[in-house]
Structures are given as C-alpha cells and as structure tokens.
Amino acid sequence: MQQYFIKGPAINPVTITDKETIKHMFQVMRLTDGDELVLVFEDGVKHLARVVDSSIHQLELVEELADNVELPIHVTIASGFPKGDKLDLVTQKTTELGANCIWAYPADWSVVKWDGRKLAKKEEKLNKIALGAAEQSKRNHVPEVKLFEKKADFLDQFAAFDKIFIAYEETAKQGQLSALARELSNLEAGMNLLFIFGPEGGISPSEIAAFEELGGIKIGLGPRIMRTETAPLYALSAVSYALELER
Question: I need a surface site. Which of 21, 53, 80, 147 has the fewest CB within 10 A?
C-alpha cells in the first residue's frame, strides 16, 4: 500500500496541499475516490486513509495504525564530503536501513569543495531522496539531512550524542575488530549514536585526534576495507542485527 508523509497534525478531513505529493498521488499513481493509502504525520504515527474527493485532493482518516519500523536507537550517519553522487546513494540506502539523521562535513581529505550555495542545492536534493526512500521503506520518520559548511559547526554537535563511533580503517588493520561488537552489546533503547566516516581518502590523523578528544571511539568494520559509500551501510546493518534481530 502506498505511503506518504504529511506535514501538520492528523485532523479529519485531510486536504493535500504539497504540489509534489499531489502530483504523485493523483497523476502518477492515479488515485481516485475510494482508494486507500497510508499517511504518516509529523508525530510519526501512521494512519489508514481513504480518498473521498480526488478533485480537491481530500482524504479521510479511517484508523490509526500501530506499525512502527524505526530502530530502537537514534543513529546519525556523518560522512566526509565524497566525490560525485556517492552522497545520493548513502542518503537513499541509510534511510532504508533506519538512519535518524544523515550529515556530511568538509573532511581534511575531501576532494570536493562545496560552498554555501552548492551545499543548499545539494541538501535540497538529498532531502527529496530521503523522503522517497522513507516512503518506499515504510518508515515512520523522514531522516534529517544536514550538510555542514564548516567542520567546527559539525564538531559542536558532538555533545548531543551518547556514543560517537569513528570508522577507522587502521583499527581494522591492527586487528581491533571487537570494539564495535562490544559497544553495540551495551546499547540501550533511546540512545543517540553518531557514526563518522571519512571521504575516499579516509580520516586524517588530526581529525582522529579531534574526534577522540570529544569522546569518539575508533572502531573497525570487519577485516576488509570498504568504500566510503559502503561503510555506513555496514554499520547500520550491524546495529539492526544487534538490536532488532539478535535479541
């Protein structure tokens, strides 16, 4: 069944006003009177809804649904600015895997250099990707997408997290492969986690020092070295296994 995210409270009747949502519902998917779908409001609660008047894009809420597919903890994925469209892929797939927030920052070894205007345009595109992926994967929330122009602003966010994990390939090379498993076994519902990933060139020594000074813990992601767009997917899969499947 189709699912759409709607801004505002769940009040009957619901009139769709967002142009993109109207286009997708009534032109692309050709919804008509009597068709049912799922609406998710800003509180994250899903509702079964029925189209009552497609000409004015009006629906009625039939019943509240108990379905909640969110991870029991809040995971923020932070990637150093990667090349090309890799951040598009990271945004789509980490949304499907349950990320709460998707951030990117100007890493020391990032090849790309984005100014404020480019960042705003890129952020707008990524928010649309996250919305589409959240609808497809039947999420209760759309992840927040934020691109930091200055690394200092990114570092200022660290105090809000219960755990900060630094995906560092040298940790894997040194055989320290149990850190992530150990940390995941000690997580509790409701915690806020930050996973930091470097760009193609990795995380610089000065960044490692800065992250560790603010409480970051270096972790390995298995014995194989992953691409910058692959590592976040591994991390979220590990979190899901530890908190949703193993227990």
Answer: 53
